[in-house]
C-alpha cells in the first residue's frame, strides 16, 4: 500500500467510530499492558467472571453441594454447547457439547470417523495444520494402519478447494483442516471443501479454534460433519477452558467414540454392565462434566450475544485492516513481510508479520507492555480480539515494534 492518508492512521478517530468500544471496559484491565495483541491465543477475562465464579462457589456449590448435579450441572455440556452453537457456529440445538480439551475431542471425533468408514484407508490433511491435529492423526493412522495423504500448504496462505479435489478419492475416509489457519489467518472455503469431500464419500472434521467467536460460521448450512474448537481464544473461557465438539445430527448414530466413559452412556446412573451410547450428542462425552471450567463461558457468551457475531466480525476486519495499514506504513519499509491474506473473505482475526530476528524482540516488547504472539521461525502474530481490543492498542503496539526495529 502507498500514499496512505496520514489521518487514516489516527487511532482516536477509529476508536470514536467504534460501535463496540464500550465493551472494552467490561474486561479486567492489566495495568502494565500497553497493547495486548495476543487475543487469538488467550482472551482477556470479562470483569464479571470473578463474581460469577465466587457466587458459584459460595452459593451453588457451597449450599447445594451434590444436589447441584440434579439442578442443572449435569445438563451443562449440552446447555453451554447449544449456546456456543447458536451464537458462534451456526448450529441448531442438540449437536454441540462442551467437554475435555481440543486435543481429546479431536481424537474422539477423528477416531470415530475412520471407524465409521471401515472400507476406506486414507486420511487427507495438510502440512501446516496446528501440530496437535497432525500428531493426533498420525497416531490414529499408525494405530489403524491408514495412509496419510498430505497436502502441502503455503504457510502464508492455506488450504484451497482445488488442492483438496486433487487428492481425495474412493479410499478417503476423513478430510481434516483448520477453518482459520493458525499461522497466516487464512480462511478456508469450508462449504466448498466439505462438498468436495462429500462427493468423494468422505467425512470432514474442521478445527474451529481460530474461528469461533471471531468469524461467523454456518456449520449446518455448509453440511459440515464434525468440528472441534477451543474456548480460551476469542470465546474468553480462560486458560485451559474445556473445548466444544460438534457432530451433525444425522451422523450421530454412526459415531462410536473411542473413549467410552460413564457420562456418555444412555443411562449413566444405572451403573450397568456394558456400554450403550447415549443416542444424542452426549455420546461424545466421557468423564464428569467440567462444571467450574464452563463458568467463564457463561459470561463471555453473554457478551457475544449482546454484541452479535456479525458486528464482531465487522470490527475484526476493521482492526486487521488497520494493523495492515500500520504495517505497510511503518514495518514493510523496515524489512517486514505480511504473511496473511489481505482479502476480507480469506482473512481471519489475526495478522502475521515475518522478519528474521523477531524472536529476539519478544522480551523488549514485553518490557514495553506490548504482548504479541510468536510462532517459529520468524512470525509475530497480531491477534486482535474485537470486544476487548482498541485501535489505540494496535497503534501503540506496532509503534513500539517499529521503534525496536529502528
Describe the structure in brief:
This protein has 406 residues and is an alpha/beta fold. 36% of the residues lie in helices and 13% in strands.
Q: What would you say this structure looks like, in words?
A:
The protein has 406 residues and is of the alpha/beta class. The chain folds into 2 domains: 6-45 and 309-405, Aspartate Aminotransferase, domain 1 (Alpha-Beta Complex); 72-304, Aspartate Aminotransferase, domain 2. 36% of the residues lie in helices and 13% in strands. It is built from 12 helices and 13 strands. It has helices at residues 11-16, 48-64, 76-89, 102-116, 131-144, 161-165, 190-199, 219-222, 291-307, 309-331, 362-367, 391-405, and strands spanning 35-36, 96-99, 122-126, 147-151, 172-178, 203-207, 226-229, 243-247, 337-338, 350-354, 370-371, 373-375, 379-383. A 7-stranded mixed sheet has the order 2-8-7-6-5-3-4, with helices on both faces. Helix 2 (48-64) packs across helix 9 (291-307), helix 3 (76-89) packs parallel to helix 9 (291-307) and helix 4 (102-116) packs parallel to helix 5 (131-144). The longest helix is centred in the last third of the chain and has 23 residues, at 309-331. The two termini are 21 Å apart. The model has no long low-confidence stretch (mean pLDDT 96).
Amino acid at each position: 500500500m502507498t500514499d496512505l492518508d496520514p489521518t487514516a492512521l489516527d487511532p482516536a478517530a477509529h476508536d470514536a467510530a467504534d460501535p463496540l468500544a464500550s465493551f472494552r471496559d467490561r474486561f479486567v484491565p492489566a495495568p502494565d499492558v500497553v497493547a495486548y495483541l495476543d487475543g487469538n491465543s488467550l482472551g482477556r477475562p470479562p470483569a464479571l467472571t470473578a463474581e460469577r465464579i465466587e457466587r458459584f462457589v459460595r452459593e451453588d456449590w457451597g449450599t447445594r453441594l451434590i444436589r447441584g448435579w440434579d439442578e442443572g450441572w449435569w445438563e451443562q455440556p449440552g446447555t453451554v454447547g447449544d449456546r456456543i452453537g447458536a451464537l458462534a457456529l451456526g448450529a441448531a440445538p442438540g449437536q454441540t457439547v462442551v467437554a475435555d480439551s481440543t486435543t481429546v475431542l479431536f481424537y474422539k471425533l477423528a477416531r470415530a470417523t475412520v471407524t465409521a468408514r471401515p472400507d476406506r484407508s486414507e486420511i487427507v490433511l495438510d502440512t501446516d495444520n496446528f501440530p496437535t491435529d497432525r500428531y493426533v492423526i498420525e497416531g490414529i493412522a499408525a494405530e489403524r494402519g491408514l495412509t496419510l495423504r498430505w497436502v502441502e500448504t503455503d504457510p502464508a496462505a492455506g488450504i484451497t478447494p482445488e488442492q483438496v479435489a486433487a487428492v481425495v478419492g474412493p479410499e478417503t475416509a476423513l478430510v481434516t483442516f483448520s477453518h482459520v489457519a493458525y499461522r497466516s489467518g487464512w480462511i478456508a472455503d469450508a462449504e466448498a471443501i466439505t462438498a468436495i469431500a462429500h462427493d468423494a464419500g468422505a467425512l470432514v472434521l474442521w478445527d474451529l479454534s481460530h474461528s469461533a467467536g471471531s468469524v461467523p460460521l454456518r456449520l449446518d448450512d455448509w453440511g459440515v460433519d464434525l468440528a472441534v474448537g477451543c474456548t480460551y481464544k476469542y470465546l474468553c473461557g480462560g486458560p485451559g477452558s474445556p473445548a466444544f465438539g460438534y457432530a451433525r445430527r444425522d451422523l450421530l448414530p454412526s459415531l462410536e467414540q473411542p473413549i467410552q466413559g460413564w457420562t456418555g452412556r444412555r443411562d449413566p446412573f444405572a451403573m450397568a454392565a456394558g456400554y450403550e451410547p447415549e443416542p444424542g450428542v452426549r455420546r461424545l462425552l466421557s468423564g464428569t462434566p467440567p462444571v467450574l471450567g464452563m463458568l467463564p463461558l457463561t459470561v463471555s457468551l453473554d457478551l457475544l450475544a449482546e454484541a452479535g457475531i456479525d458486528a464482531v466480525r465487522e470490527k475484526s476486519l476493521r482492526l486487521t485492516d488497520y494493523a495492515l495499514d500500520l504495517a505497510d506504513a511503518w514495518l514493510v519499509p523496515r524489512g517486514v513481510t505480511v504473511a496473511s491474506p489481505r482479502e476480507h473473505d480469506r482473512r481471519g482475526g489475526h495478522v502475521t508479520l515475518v522478519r528474521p530476528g523477531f524472536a529476539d524482540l519478544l522480551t523488549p516488547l514485553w518490557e514495553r507492555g506490548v504482548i504479541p504472539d510468536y510462532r517459529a521461525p520468524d512470525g509475530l502474530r497480531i491477534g486482535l480480539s474485537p470486544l476487548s481490543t482498541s485501535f489505540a492498542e494496535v497503534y501503540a503496539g506496532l509503534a513500539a515494534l517499529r521503534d525496536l526495529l529502528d
